[in-house]
Amino acid sequence: MNSHVAILMGTFQGERFISEQMESFFAQTHRDWELWVSDDGSTDRTLSIVEDFQRERGAPIHVVAGPRKGFIRNFLALACNPAISADFYSFADQDDIWHTDKLERALAWLQSQPADVPALYCSRTHIVDESGGSVGESPLFARRPSFSNALVQSIGGGNTIVMNDTARRVLLAAGSDVTVASHDWWAYMVIAGAGGHIRYDPLPPIDYRQHGSNLVGSNSGWRARIRRLRMLTRSQFRSWNTQNLDALKSIEHLLTGENIKTLEQFKQIRRQGFPKRLWTLYKSGLHRQTFLGNIGLVAAVVLRQV
């Protein structure tokens, strides 16, 4: 089976750490890849560093101008760029470090899936600080990935996602101009919704760097758990759900019959009175991955914050 991978990396003011990330690309045991960089208007040395790698390594690196509408649109613009063609597609952040077998492990599972079925690999992450020192690991999720989970939770960071071409075509159908809470949550949601196969790898294949410039922080630790519980019971969660539901309208025709039913139940929960919405939540099977997360979800439903 062909195994050409397009690495899709969004960049912005990334000069501090991008060299380490790019070195980790060249250290991959899977060699058949090309790098697409979408730069969102960097004024530092980000592009110079990329160009140095391209010149010195003779590497297959392509640089395009980002839409300058934030990191979510930047990644979706890459995923939907018609000039990019590959067998598999991997998102990459500019400041992480890939383990040498990241692509090999993802492809081992992806190539075992039917080529005509959308398939997405994601994983846990090993969290490091600015200097690369170990901080811990992201939460370990044990329940099977599904659309009924994806509607209310993102489980795999974009920096871990690798997908096949059939999954990429689902993202293409939705387009890059959708307004969604995050590109990784969106990818999980639409690919699961279209009946895709999702693999959550409990073994981290990347070092996820946490530093002051991160747009999205770590989910590890009790402080992060409490923050997520608070988010579930405040209007931010409802606002994100509204964005995602509006975006789903364009690809509802791609959802399976069972997932359309789940989606309709989710919409009902958002407009029903109490206690009927709790009964609909129970019937729908909507869930988060942890006990505390599900307590927060129930509280959000009670408080009309879904």
Annotation keywords:
306 residues, alpha/beta, seven-stranded mixed beta sheet, globular
Commentary on this structure:
- The protein is of the alpha/beta class and 306 residues long.
- The protein has twelve helices and eleven strands.
- The strands form two sheets. The protein has a seven-stranded mixed sheet, sandwiched between helices.
- Helix 8 (221-232) runs parallel beside helix 12 and helix 10 (257-271) runs antiparallel to helix 11 (276-284).
- The longest helix is centred in the C-terminal third of the chain and has 15 residues, at 257-271.
- The mean pLDDT is 94.
Secondary-structure map:
Blueprint: E1 5-11, H1 18-26, E2 33-39, H2 46-57, E3 61-65, H3 71-79, E4 88-92, E5 97-98, H4 102-110, E6 119-123, E7 126-128, E8 134-137, H5 147-150, E9 162-164, H6 165-174, H7 183-193, E10 197-201, E11 206-209, H8 221-232, H9 235-248, H10 257-271, H11 276-284, H12 291-302
Parallel strand pairs: 1-2, 1-4, 2-3, 6-10, 7-11
Antiparallel strand pairs: 4-9, 5-11, 6-9, 7-8
* Rg for CA atoms: 19 Å
Portion in strands: 15-25%
How is the main sheet built? Answer: 7 strands, mixed
Give the beta-strand count: 11
Condensed summary:
This protein has 306 residues and is an alpha/beta fold. It has 12 helices and 11 strands.
